[in-house]
Amino acid sequence: MSVVLLFAAGARAERSSLQPETGYHYGEAEDARVGAMAGATRATGNGITSVFGNPAGLTLSRVYHVGALAAIWPEARRQSYGAAAMDSVTSRLALGVGFMWNDQDPDGLKRRSQDLRIAAAYPFSDKVAFGITGRYLKLRQNGLGPLGYSYASGGTSGDPIVDGFSFDAGIRAVPSENFSLAVLGTNLSNPGNGLQPTTLGGGIAIGSERLVFEVDALADFTTWQKTTPRAMGGFEFLAADAFPLRAGYQYDAGARSHAVSGGLGYIDTQFSFEVGLRRIVSGEQATTLLFTLQYFVESSGITRSPAPMDVY
Question: Hey, what CATH topology would domain 2-310 get?
Answer without folding.
Answer: Porin (2.40.160)
